[in-house]
Amino acid sequence: MTVYKTSAQVIHQIEEELDEDEKEVILFLCRDLAPDLVTKLDLRDLLCTLNEKGKLSSAGLAELLYRVRRFDLLKKIMKTDRGSVEASLVKCPKLISDYRVLMTQLSEDMDKSEVTSLSFLLRDYMGGGKTHKNKSFLDVVIDLEKVNLIAPDKLDLLEKCLKNIHRIDLKKKIQKYKQSALGANYVNGIPASLPSVGLTKSGYDLGLKNGMSKEERPIFGQHGISTEPVKTSIQECEKSLPQVASEEYRLKSQPLGLCLIIDCIGNDADLLKDTFISLRFEVQYSKHLITEEIHETLYQVSCLSKHRDYDIFVCILISRSDSENIFGIDQPCSGFPLHQIRKFFTGDACPLLLGKPKLFFIQNYVVPEDHKEPNSLVEVDGRMSHNVWRPRSPTGALLHQEADIFWSLCKVNVSVLEKFPGSPSFYLRCLSQLLHQPAERRCSLLNLHIDLNNKIYDWNSRVAREEQYSIVSEHTLRKNVFLPCR
Questions:
Q1: Residue 9: exposed, middle, or buried by beta-carbon count in 10 A (0-12, 13-18, 19+)?
Q2: Is there a contact between 313 and 258 (Cβ–Cβ < 8 Å)?
Q3: Using one digit for the tens of pLDDT, what is the confidence trace for 111-138?
């Protein structure tokens, strides 16, 4: 049988790019193709062996990359794209069974504590023994397959255990798989990993304060740190089920996502660009925009199709402002409301970011009221989508249009720009430093922001009042956000 050297080279390139978790998933997906080899060979050797046996075509390799959401490698190595692979999966036979794809989807949606609970429940069926806390969900599935407790047509036990750990959303995925009949075509095999969520208006409206207005002025404690509690979110799989607080958003795409930086002051863009590039973001940045250009940039970025392939979005905006509006470099001739920034990226306005975390870090240099020209502000209407489509998770549950948002707004008197010309924002400098923490100090976004608050608190205790920073942070995140280490 002919051995295609070019394909071997492609296999080597792909294996070099994949991380260990992605390799584990691909090995699992390939178990039906070579059940006698998959446990004996590493990924590169296995793929080469399948290739030599004529079981792995270029389309098959592309499908594997699609299943682990490495759309960057589809373009870089396979010279194709997500849309082409999805079209091929509809028209042509698939390499991977729907059952294997379903198991990897369930794996993506489960955290370690849930896998441990699942493993414990299965002791009654697998002869007891110790619970393996470090096993992945796919490891558990393999163990069940070995003793014939799970198979493509034998999923009742798994359904029962998922119900017992209160993951009704995952149980429904299995039921949907059963109803589809195993031979049905499979389209878009890796949807966003979203649990079934109920978000009520009263509990999840982002009443995000602009920080300084008379009507909605936040309560500040000593040294200007907001004492309002950060809003937390509750995941609901069914009514009256306990909160699941240990889940993480999936952040594995390459790049992770787009980081938009708009710096109308000019002191911070370069530092922030380097920071987020090192965190594997695609960075788009602009300096010294007028207000209309800020508005246009936000709109254009919200319409980008590449959000489909990314797992997260970050927006950083540095500008002058008053209590309610931001200005471009044409200040004080025009401005638009602070709260409008996030509206470009809500579920209604930007459906490609539905279910994905959207992080906003805003540094505003506040211009006192008596330094503005009267009636100088013009509110700019956002070009939002006005259709009746309502965003839904893959399980069918309605998602609040402002779910999955983290908002951090920092303000300081504009006089610091004159007192310290060319100096970066202390708030953004600390944020950059915290994002560069070593791996052993990696923490969630919310905990990182607590550390940031502490640094601001310490700064405010040592400087004059006009140099003090104040932060208001609120969120509607449904899971933890763990940004990668540098």
A1: exposed
A2: yes
A3: 888 888 888 888 878 765 555 557 889 9
